[in-house]
Design brief:
Layout: H1 3-9, H2 16-24, H3 31-43, H4 51-60, H5 64-73
Helix pairs in contact: 1-5, 2-3, 2-5
Length: 75
């Protein structure tokens, strides 16, 4: 498994402040979409959120760049 996949599997357990810190590093033009994605991820906390579901959501929003932030935030 790649580091990104491993990080995405841990997403539901990430704390809200960690996701907010990730969003701070996102460029301004994508900030609103990143916040929406963060809300979706946070609303899924405690539920099983599949890696493919997160990848699909990020790709639909054009937020592949956020996957790198999630990968870095999981370390």
């Amino acid at each position: 498994m790649s580091k990104v996949t491993s990080a995405l599997e841990a997403v539901p357990a990430l704390a809200a402040d960690k996701l907010k810190r990730i969003c701070v590093h996102v460029s301004q033009q994508h900030l609103a979409d990143a916040k929406r994605l963060s809300k979706v991820l946070l609303s899924s906390e405690g539920k099983k959120l599949t890696t493919s579901a997160v990848l699909r959501l990020a790709q639909d929003k054009g937020l592949e760049f956020l996957l790198q932030g999630l990968n870095e935030g999981a370390h």
